[in-house]
Amino acid sequence: MNALVRPILLILSALSPALAAQIQFTGLPEFTENAIYIGFAKATIDGIPNQLLICDDYHHTTYVPSGNLSYSVSHLIGPNPLSGARFVSPGGPGAADFFRYREAAVLLAAFATLRSPDATTVGDYQFALWHLMSPDVALTRSPAQQALLDAAAIAVQSNSPAVSALYSHLVIYTPVGASVSNQEFLHYAPEPNFTLLLLGICAVGFMGLTRRSRA
Q1: pLDDT for 108-119, tens place per residue?
Q2: Domain encompassing residue 154
């Protein structure tokens, strides 16, 4: 998909209050920690193969490979943001919910720019994301993973144009109907432009925080 078509699709999808997708999970994440798969899973979304999704939902289960599963699609921008997301307040998304998913967007953007991360780094991002959405999920390496969460929160609070630009690239897939027992997944779709350079700088900063916290 070229750089012009993708943002148009993102804008159109954000304008729809009831988007749906059919997802078939085709490949497990590369790494495990404590016998739990961590990192990006491969999926076919509406017939498009080799899409990378990361789970933000520790307490549900998705079996891989899977058949076609039904998911709603929501975003952080548009007239109905977070309309189908799982981790929002019962009465509808509030300020804390938006802040949480914005933190997730920052975490995922930084993670997506890493080149060949090792299992420890993947686990740090994965457990930080799980803890963000479900605070009862314990951090397995608290200093490093908490540093990632702190950096994400600071980035969101900065409200800078570079950080705000990340939010339009987050796609949230939440299971619905007969598939509701499955996990929610996130997808980050960056453009091949200067935003990637900013994300690379962000990723280096995150890694620096992680190294200092371990030391």
Answers
A1: 999 999 999 999
A2: 5-214
